[in-house]
Amino acid sequence: ELIRQGEALKRTEQMVDKMDQDLKTSQKHINSIKSVWGGLVNYFKAKPPESKPEQNGAPEYYANSRLKEAMMSSKEQESKYQESHPNLRKLDNSDNDFNKADLVSSVQRDAYPKNQHLRAYHQKIDNNLDEMSSGLSRLKSLALGLQTEIEEQDDMLDRLTKKVETLDVNIKNTDRKVRQL
Protein backbone atom coordinates (compact mmCIF):
# COMPACT_ATOMS: atom_id res chain seq x y z
CA GLU A 1 0.00 0.00 0.00
CA LEU A 2 2.86 2.37 0.83
CA ILE A 3 4.49 1.70 -2.52
CA ARG A 4 1.22 2.43 -4.31
CA GLN A 5 0.85 5.66 -2.33
CA GLY A 6 4.42 6.63 -3.20
CA GLU A 7 3.70 6.14 -6.89
CA ALA A 8 0.53 8.25 -6.55
CA LEU A 9 2.52 11.00 -4.83
CA LYS A 10 5.07 10.92 -7.63
CA ARG A 11 2.34 11.25 -10.29
CA THR A 12 0.80 14.12 -8.34
CA GLU A 13 4.15 15.88 -8.17
CA GLN A 14 4.60 15.46 -11.91
CA MET A 15 1.14 16.93 -12.54
CA VAL A 16 1.94 19.92 -10.32
CA ASP A 17 5.19 20.46 -12.24
CA LYS A 18 3.25 20.32 -15.54
CA MET A 19 0.71 22.81 -14.19
CA ASP A 20 3.55 25.13 -13.22
CA GLN A 21 4.97 24.94 -16.76
CA ASP A 22 1.54 25.63 -18.25
CA LEU A 23 1.09 28.57 -15.91
CA LYS A 24 4.41 30.07 -17.05
CA THR A 25 3.31 29.69 -20.65
CA SER A 26 -0.02 31.37 -19.91
CA GLN A 27 1.82 34.18 -18.15
CA LYS A 28 3.82 34.74 -21.31
CA HIS A 29 0.63 34.93 -23.36
CA ILE A 30 -0.95 37.35 -20.88
CA ASN A 31 2.11 39.60 -21.17
CA SER A 32 1.79 39.49 -24.97
CA ILE A 33 -1.89 40.41 -24.83
CA LYS A 34 -1.41 43.07 -22.17
CA SER A 35 0.92 45.27 -24.15
CA VAL A 36 2.89 45.52 -27.34
CA TRP A 37 6.06 45.86 -25.32
CA GLY A 38 5.32 42.56 -23.51
CA GLY A 39 4.78 40.88 -26.88
CA LEU A 40 8.13 42.17 -28.16
CA VAL A 41 9.92 41.05 -25.01
CA ASN A 42 8.40 37.59 -25.32
CA TYR A 43 9.28 37.43 -29.01
CA PHE A 44 12.96 38.17 -28.46
CA LYS A 45 13.26 36.35 -25.17
CA ALA A 46 14.97 32.97 -25.43
CA LYS A 47 12.45 30.18 -25.35
CA PRO A 48 12.80 28.04 -22.26
CA PRO A 49 13.82 24.49 -22.99
CA GLU A 50 11.02 22.00 -22.72
CA SER A 51 11.76 20.07 -19.59
CA LYS A 52 10.14 16.93 -18.44
CA PRO A 53 8.43 17.03 -15.04
CA GLU A 54 10.96 14.47 -13.72
CA GLN A 55 13.72 17.05 -14.21
CA ASN A 56 12.09 19.67 -11.99
CA GLY A 57 13.61 18.42 -8.75
CA ALA A 58 11.53 15.26 -8.55
CA PRO A 59 13.54 12.13 -9.29
CA GLU A 60 11.85 9.04 -10.70
CA TYR A 61 10.01 7.22 -7.91
CA TYR A 62 11.37 3.90 -6.78
CA ALA A 63 10.17 2.26 -3.63
CA ASN A 64 12.71 2.10 -0.85
CA SER A 65 15.22 -0.71 -1.43
CA ARG A 66 15.14 -1.62 2.25
CA LEU A 67 11.38 -2.13 2.06
CA LYS A 68 11.65 -4.14 -1.16
CA GLU A 69 14.31 -6.40 0.35
CA ALA A 70 12.22 -6.91 3.49
CA MET A 71 9.14 -7.75 1.42
CA MET A 72 11.08 -10.21 -0.75
CA SER A 73 12.61 -11.85 2.31
CA SER A 74 9.22 -11.99 3.98
CA LYS A 75 7.62 -13.62 0.96
CA GLU A 76 10.43 -16.19 0.80
CA GLN A 77 9.91 -17.09 4.45
CA GLU A 78 6.12 -17.10 4.25
CA SER A 79 5.71 -20.73 3.18
CA LYS A 80 8.18 -21.93 5.81
CA TYR A 81 6.33 -19.85 8.38
CA GLN A 82 2.95 -21.29 7.40
CA GLU A 83 4.32 -24.83 7.62
CA SER A 84 5.58 -24.29 11.14
CA HIS A 85 2.82 -22.08 12.55
CA PRO A 86 0.55 -24.13 14.84
CA ASN A 87 -2.66 -22.58 13.53
CA LEU A 88 -1.67 -22.71 9.85
CA ARG A 89 -0.12 -26.16 9.53
CA LYS A 90 -2.03 -29.39 9.23
CA LEU A 91 -2.34 -30.97 12.64
CA ASP A 92 -0.59 -34.27 13.14
CA ASN A 93 -2.62 -36.73 15.21
CA SER A 94 0.36 -38.71 16.44
CA ASP A 95 1.42 -38.30 20.07
CA ASN A 96 5.06 -37.60 19.25
CA ASP A 97 5.79 -34.62 16.98
CA PHE A 98 9.46 -35.51 16.63
CA ASN A 99 11.27 -38.03 14.49
CA LYS A 100 13.21 -40.04 17.08
CA ALA A 101 16.26 -40.48 14.83
CA ASP A 102 16.49 -36.71 14.34
CA LEU A 103 15.91 -36.20 18.03
CA VAL A 104 18.74 -38.49 19.10
CA SER A 105 21.23 -36.94 16.67
CA SER A 106 20.28 -33.33 17.39
CA VAL A 107 19.99 -33.42 21.17
CA GLN A 108 23.19 -35.17 22.10
CA ARG A 109 24.47 -31.93 23.52
CA ASP A 110 25.14 -31.50 27.24
CA ALA A 111 22.71 -28.57 27.43
CA TYR A 112 19.72 -30.89 27.51
CA PRO A 113 18.71 -33.10 30.40
CA LYS A 114 19.47 -36.80 30.24
CA ASN A 115 15.78 -37.74 30.43
CA GLN A 116 14.56 -38.41 26.89
CA HIS A 117 11.16 -36.77 27.40
CA LEU A 118 12.70 -33.63 28.93
CA ARG A 119 15.20 -33.48 26.07
CA ALA A 120 12.35 -33.67 23.58
CA TYR A 121 10.48 -30.84 25.28
CA HIS A 122 13.63 -28.73 25.53
CA GLN A 123 14.28 -29.32 21.84
CA LYS A 124 10.68 -28.38 21.04
CA ILE A 125 11.02 -25.18 23.07
CA ASP A 126 14.30 -24.34 21.31
CA ASN A 127 12.70 -24.92 17.92
CA ASN A 128 9.78 -22.69 18.87
CA LEU A 129 12.16 -19.98 20.07
CA ASP A 130 14.08 -20.22 16.78
CA GLU A 131 10.82 -19.79 14.86
CA MET A 132 9.88 -16.81 17.04
CA SER A 133 13.30 -15.28 16.50
CA SER A 134 12.97 -15.72 12.76
CA GLY A 135 9.49 -14.15 12.79
CA LEU A 136 10.64 -11.22 14.91
CA SER A 137 13.61 -10.68 12.63
CA ARG A 138 11.25 -10.63 9.66
CA LEU A 139 8.96 -8.13 11.41
CA LYS A 140 11.92 -5.94 12.32
CA SER A 141 13.18 -5.77 8.74
CA LEU A 142 9.65 -4.98 7.50
CA ALA A 143 9.27 -2.27 10.15
CA LEU A 144 12.61 -0.69 9.26
CA GLY A 145 11.71 -0.76 5.57
CA LEU A 146 8.33 0.82 6.30
CA GLN A 147 9.96 3.50 8.45
CA THR A 148 12.39 4.45 5.70
CA GLU A 149 9.63 4.50 3.07
CA ILE A 150 7.44 6.68 5.28
CA GLU A 151 10.32 9.12 5.86
CA GLU A 152 10.96 9.37 2.12
CA GLN A 153 7.28 9.93 1.39
CA ASP A 154 7.13 12.54 4.16
CA ASP A 155 9.94 14.43 2.41
CA MET A 156 8.05 14.08 -0.88
CA LEU A 157 4.90 15.46 0.77
CA ASP A 158 6.82 18.45 2.13
CA ARG A 159 8.26 19.18 -1.31
CA LEU A 160 4.84 18.76 -2.93
CA THR A 161 3.20 21.05 -0.35
CA LYS A 162 5.70 23.83 -1.11
CA LYS A 163 5.14 23.43 -4.86
CA VAL A 164 1.35 23.51 -4.48
CA GLU A 165 1.48 26.62 -2.28
CA THR A 166 3.69 28.42 -4.82
CA LEU A 167 1.44 27.28 -7.65
CA ASP A 168 -1.63 28.50 -5.78
CA VAL A 169 -0.14 31.97 -5.37
CA ASN A 170 0.87 32.06 -9.05
CA ILE A 171 -2.60 30.95 -10.17
CA LYS A 172 -4.24 33.68 -8.08
CA ASN A 173 -1.88 36.29 -9.54
CA THR A 174 -2.52 35.08 -13.08
CA ASP A 175 -6.28 35.06 -12.47
CA ARG A 176 -6.10 38.63 -11.18
CA LYS A 177 -4.14 39.72 -14.28
CA VAL A 178 -6.63 38.04 -16.63
CA ARG A 179 -9.52 39.80 -14.87
CA GLN A 180 -7.72 43.14 -15.30
CA LEU A 181 -7.54 42.58 -19.05
Automatic annotation (TrEMBL):
It is a peripheral membrane protein. GO terms for cellular component: autophagosome membrane; ciliary membrane; presynapse; SNARE complex. The keyword Lyase does not apply. GO terms for molecular function: SNAP receptor activity; syntaxin binding. Belongs to the SNAP-25 family. Forms a SNARE complex, composed of VAMP8, SNAP29 and STX17, involved in fusion of autophagosome with lysosome. Interacts with multiple syntaxins including STX6. Interacts with EIPR1. Interacts with STX17; this interaction is increased in the absence of TMEM39A. This is Synaptosomal-associated protein 29. It comes from Dryoscopus gambensis. The lineage of its organism: Eukaryota, Metazoa, Chordata, Craniata, Vertebrata. The gene is Snap29.
